[in-house]
Task: structure prediction
Amino acid sequence: MEVPLLRYHCLSRDQIRNNCGFPSSSDHRSLFPGYRSSICEGIWRKPFGRFRCASSLNPGLKPRPIPIPTRIDNDVNEIVEFDDARMKKPSASLCSQIEKLVLCGRYRQALDLFEIFELEGGFDVDVDTYDALIRACIGLRSVRGVKRIYHYMKSNGFEPDIYMRNRVLLMHIKSGLMEEARLLFDEMPEKNLISWTTIMGGLLDIGEYLEAFRLFLLMWEDFSEGDPRLFSTTIRACTGLGSVSIGKQLHACMLKMGAVHNIFISCSLIDMYSKCGAIEDARFIFEDMPEKTTVGWNTMITGYALHGYSEEAVDLFFQMSDSGVKMDHFTISLIVRVCARLASLDYAKQAHAALYRQNFGSDMVANTTLVDLYSKWGRIEYARHVFEQMPCKNVLSWNALISGYSNRGQGSEAIELFDRMIHEKMRPTHITFHAVLSACCYSDLSVQGWEIFKSMETDHGIKPRAMHYAIMIELLGRDGLIDEAFALLRGAPFNPTVNMWAALVTACRMEENLELGRYAAEKLYGMEPEKLNNYIVLLNIYKSSSGSSKEAAAAILNTIRRKGMNILPACSWIEVGRRVHVLHFGDKSHPLSKEVHEKVDELIKQISKHGYAPGEKTVLPDVDEIDQKKKPGYHSEMLAVGLGVMSSPWWKQLQVVQGHRICGDCHEAIKLISMLKRREIIVRDASRFHHFSDGHCSCGDYW
Result:
């Protein structure tokens, strides 16, 4: 018998004899007899005559089988009759080794041992060994392994029962061979519920929701059993289709069959209703659960977070904490993301503490989310501490901290961290380069930015994308190199994108290059004619011009009104005393509106002594121009800052979130307020983070 010895060069002479039918001079006992350590026994260094090392063969050629000896040890192989074919039954030792290797998770070594069967052929492998090999293929997602094992089954006349047919079907699905799996399913002489749910699950995994639901309808004609796994799988199909009406019909069917109180079905229904927009129905199912599990809580919290109900998600998180249900790492990472959306550092700190209380302090996903939250909301020292304490970091962890330094305008620190990332053999991604290039742009590090941009393809094999070109156009615009920025846009190896034209428009607006700015704004308007912001950009360019441009600006306003584009009211959020306050432009509905307006007037008087003079030249994308003239200083972000200054201690950081781009007047005013009041103020507008401190902003007055 010829065996490839390249993988088994550490086997001793006696081990090979024991496992392949040769008499042994000594008895060695081991959990895996064929895989004894070379330290414990002598290594077989000179091959037997009847064995040849696989490494000596020509590449790509299969070894030629040596004729089977006429005399074989009865201890190993037993000749049996099977349909007039002579089949050899392998030793129980070799099959046992394969099963033990699979049991211990050593899947690749198990498949290597299976190669002995393939090379010689004709071995009668039992069901347990096939089952173990199938498990190894599923664990490795090995397409080659699947084809090898299935071919061996067919060539040796193995007749699987319904259990093994389902296992073979699952093996193909988990390895991504859906076409072969569907053919196997159609050819199955007998199908049970597991067969149907297995193929439906495979279709759902590749997004074939309609076909999965069609199979359910076909199956329902033969099997009308209320199996929880079947219903859960079908609910997933309804979720993928986004059809709440079909989901409700299925729900009614389960109610009639009394299957709705199953935990898996309840969680699937909550997920389906929440993702289809019926959040109230999802909450009803959640409250009706006889036992609320961790998965149930997580699913409901996810539903609220998915539709922007951040406060409800946080409230539900605290209810979960009070109920005593054990949280998992998904719960913590989810609630941290919700806190980031709410700009609530207090809630985030509680989630951070819960991360350690629940023994998930080393969880990479949750810690990466914390790094992202702390860095965005001005606690870069907290973010760095969490990052350095992480026992294992992935590229997302590095990206989060580099982006944090970028948002803070700390370009040198971002570049230093990027260099350390490369030194530690972590491969950067497109997002990594976008973050570090943004840091160079915001910190006016042009030379370093161009070096990193050029190294993307030469050193790292990453072709720059449109988002990288947009950053470099902005970098050139900050340096006043408008012509070079336009040349870079035209020289890109792809058609300019919206972000690239928008970067050029911003550069032209800052440098007052109205002719090129008008050309770029018209290009931007033509690419997205239904987007209101593009009309506003073009309007601002025309308003800055003179002569016939004034008439063009009036024509743009008429177009906006004719198309019925709604100008949404400006809105900002700020958290004070663990309560989120929502303020609108010129808001008088807030309980403290009178006090807030008085505080804003007081602040404007104070900063006016330091050179502040309102003179807004641009129109906000979501504020009517007439209202701006009537109520200067009462923009929603200024009202939020006024509320924060008067309602929180001087040392507390103010965090404002707004749904529109901050205007020039408010930007200048908040800079001066941060200097006079010695407050750190963070404003997250529609385009980026603005970190105000000591009269400066992280954006460098360029946004």
Notes: The longest strand covers residues 571-576. Residues 1-86, 616-630 have pLDDT under 50 and may be disordered.
